[in-house]
Amino acid sequence: MSSDKTDTSDFEILGIEFIELLANELNEVQTFLEDYGFSLIAQHRRKRVYLFKQGAINIIVNCADDSIAKAYLEETGISIYAICLKCSDAIKCHTELLKRGGWNCTSRSGPMELNIPGIEGVGGTQIYLVDQLREDVSIYEIDFKMLDSPKMQPERLSHIDHLSIKIEEGRLPAWMAFFKNLLGFESLNESTLRIPGKQGVELSLAENTDNSQSEYFDEIGFKACEEHTSVTPSRPSNLAVNFKVI
């Protein structure tokens, strides 16, 4: 990991495009996500990958049989495997991050599929990079087929508020440097950063205190809509990440 300050004059990170969850089967998480107000609107044309949407929040559920993702799923349970960042120029951003010491993540795209560049993140997770497109253009149109009659859920959430990551003891300074110096996230204190973008999503890091060497996303927090009514979704038994509404 590089300790040099990233020069972002040639590109700009503009927020989160989507969060990718790993699950064995869609039915493990569909009702859970729908209870939070997410609607299943599309399915990948060739894979068991599904797109849930709520306002500007996109969650991709990956049930595909990719060996790397499967190994991660077996180790962690249902979990956040990737975050995708919107950029002013994804290719330029990716090239610059590799020059500065980022670890390239292997593309899993097939023929006629969108090739999304990215780097490896905490604990084997992925950080994807996509171009910020016009509001009338979707990155999902190539790989996904929109459902003819999706069952739309009442919206309960307005935006992602925060993400938190558990890291191995003693690794806090290194990972703070990774996000701050490599990706240009704003440091708020010794363990919290802000992801660039309109919503100002906060990313907090906390060391494991149980001598565990596992590193993973342990919480995603959402800001509730003003008309939000509290619900208690049925939590999947092997869900490794906490969903929190504030």
- CATH class membership of the largest domain: Alpha Beta
**Given the C-alpha coordinates, what overall shape results?**
globular
CATH superfamily of the largest domain: 2,3-Dihydroxybiphenyl 1,2-Dioxygenase, domain 1
Q: Hey, roughly how much beta strand do the residues contain?
A: 25-35%
What's the number of extended β-strand segments?
Answer: 14
Number of helices: 4
Mind describing the biggest β-sheet? 8 strands, mixed
Verbal overview:
This protein has helices at 30-35, 67-76, 90-99, 172-182, and strands spanning 13-22, 39-44, 49-54, 57-62, 79-87, 118-120, 126-131, 144-146, 157-167, 186-189, 192-194, 202-207, 216-224, 242-245. The radius of gyration is 17 Å and the shape is globular. The strands form two sheets. Strands 6-7-5-1-4-3-2-8 form an eight-stranded mixed β-sheet. A six-stranded mixed β-sheet has the order 10-11-12-9-13-14, with helices on one face. The longest helix is centred in the last third of the chain and has 11 residues, at 172-182. It folds into two domains: 13-146, Roll (2,3-Dihydroxybiphenyl 1,2-Dioxygenase, domain 1); 157-245, Immunoglobulin-like (Sandwich), CATH 2.60.40. It is 15% helix and 35% strand. The protein is an alpha/beta fold. Mean pLDDT is 90; it is low at 1-6. The two termini are 34 Å apart. A hairpin with a 2-residue loop joins strand 3 and strand 4 (57-62). One of its GO terms (molecular function) is 4-hydroxyphenylpyruvate dioxygenase activity. InterPro entries: Glyas_Bleomycin-R_OHBP_Dase, VOC_core. Keywords: Dioxygenase, Oxidoreductase, Pyruvate.
